[in-house]
Amino acid sequence: MSATEPGEGPLRGRGDLDLRLARVHGQVVATAKDPALAGYKLLLVRDVAESDPEKGIGPAYVALDLVGAGEGEVVLVAV
After folding, report:
1. How far apart are the first and last CA of the chain?
2. C-alpha atoms less than 13 angstroms from C-alpha of 75 in its C-beta half-sphere
């Protein structure tokens, strides 16, 4: 899936987003998901310390992949 234009996609209309630095730990498989998310991958990510991206902090959570990130990569997550 290609990157979306500003104002398009599942995050459209959100001007109040915070960004987190996180590492991708794998892909999540869903047997059912909202039709608006069709075609997007779900990733299992865990926040990392800005000063040491090898150090995970907090619990893992699911994030929507808009850019084709892979396991082990450090990504920005908008929340």
Report:
1. 21
2. 23
Residue type at 57 in one-letter notation: I
Question: Rounded to a whole number, what is the largest CA-CA distance in the chain?
Answer: 38
pLDDT at 5: 46
Share of the chain above pLDDT 90, in %: 49
Q: 70 CB contacts (<8 Å, ≥6 apart)?
A: 24
CA separation for the pair 4, 63 (Å, rounded):
16
Task: Tell me the residue length of the chain.
Answer: 79
Alpha-carbon torsion (33, 34, 40, 45), positive or negative:
negative
